[in-house]
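Lecture notes, unit on protein representations.

Consider one protein chain, 377 amino acids long.
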Amino acid sequence: MAGLYIHIPFCKQACSYCNFHFSTRLETMDALVDAIIAEMNMRSDYLSGPQLDSVYFGGGTPSLLSRHQLDRIWRAIECHFDLSDKVEITLEANPDDLHSEKLVMLADTAVNRLSIGVQSFRERDLVFMHRAHNAVQAKSCLTAAIHKGFDNLSIDLIYGIPGLTDDDWEENLRIMAEFPINHLSCYALTVEPRTLLAHQIKTHQVESTSDEHSANQFKLLMEYARDRGWLHYEISNFAKPGFIAVHNGNYWKQEEYLGLGPSAHSYNGVSRSWNVANNAQYVRSIGENVLPLSQEKLEVEQVYNEYIMTGLRTIWGCSLEHLASLGDSFSIYFQQEVKQFVDRKWVFNKEGIFTLTDEGKLFADHISSELFMVESP
């Protein structure tokens, strides 16, 4: 199976921590939608799989799309792709966009899953992060979405925010549990270059949260999810049984996906490509019938490294059988290098499937980098 990702690079305002590609010039949205549809026409044969089992509108803020814009993109998708009977169609949304009129519109489209950027239920956190919504909207949008018939909801929450105590973080999780939410994505607040947050910390306007504090809130999150039977299927993602996100799962299991729009990435098993992260340049290039992308053919060592990076973050782990399919030397190398982490109890080996322990999840990036192969064995 394969996935389709559509990047809608527009936001009402810039959040203090965000370094994703977006623009606040909403008047150019129609031209961008035209270009996305044109790119779809040009790249509809990119995927080898017979069907799409996931369509994901990400951003940016896809909930800014009008009914006309969303319908135009969807008609193009139906024209160019075969959709599975159970295709997951996710639209990322901000709480302030999910008013009654917008939800009525979305409920009348093919969208069957909402991923809502709540980030926090605390007013102080939302102001600090320069979010466009407030704490009242963070709750009311969930009630409204459920009332309009959306029964597959995911929300994002952020921990490690300056001033967010452990009690505050547990209160955020408690409020989340008041709603019939099936999926939860949680991220530590990170300081990305060229963001307002990075500037605030550099100029001592804000004191950053310690790694220890963020790690402790991550541990609380894991305990909370485990106690309630949620599946911790990827380091940042949790789901009730039966609600693992198809889009997320496809990414972490290295299934094929096509990404459309500025800065969107694509993967077909043998190469990766990525579009230019500039709206005007993207639109201009597509208008000239030229794909504005860069491409990289993956060497077998890169395939190995990416499998380690993605697989080890998930409940599916890294399989010696799969590594051997790349060449016996890769499984041998992996077993040699991973032993130190198995001995530390950061990695668990069950019948040749290697997964991270709770402690190991705190060091996932370090473990993966130590297992990477720089040169052929």
